[in-house]
């Protein structure tokens, strides 16, 4: 529809409305005006005001419960932070330490290691291992799992940086 057609349609609509309105008596015009105003108010109430008022009332009812939930979540988050700090200071022992060291070796790409639990000590044996990779891994587990080396034997191989090794680790607090 181009601009000319819109003007014609608007003019036609205005003319039809003016003709309709002029044909009404003063009483009919008053009734139509008040009826239209009431219709606008009813539509405005049902579409705009009532849903907003209902939503506000529902939110007002739910707010105390949401505040309780927020307080619980905040308390749980504080407790989790406290427990995480406490857990970080506890070194694994026994089978847990063996499992942690085995997993750490795999994470560092050090395949073929034999890990054994002997009392409170975990013994790690590796053949043809990279010495720099082993010392890097050892530094990581020392910090992460709070372990100490109680005994280590290493034999240098002909290839530079490669060793056969046996290392015994235990929790730093064990003696």
Commentary on this structure:
The protein has 175 residues and is an alpha+beta fold. The chain contains four helices and four strands; from the N terminus they run H-H-H-E-E-H-E-E. The protein is elongated.
Largest beta-sheet characterization: 4 strands, antiparallel
How many distinct helices? 4
Name the beta content range. Answer: 15-25%
**Helix and strand sequence:** HHHEEHEE
Low-confidence stretches: none
What general outline do the C-alpha atoms trace? elongated
Percent range for helical residues?
55-70%
Mean pLDDT, as a whole number?
Answer: 87
Overall radius of gyration = 41 Å
Spatial strand arrangement across the major sheet: 1-2-4-3
What's the total number of strands? Answer: 4
Cα end-to-end separation:
93 Å
SS class: alpha+beta
Concise overview:
With 175 residues, the protein is of the alpha+beta class. 64% of the residues lie in helices and 20% in strands.
Key features of this structure:
175 residues; alpha+beta; four-stranded antiparallel sheet; 4 strands; 64% helix
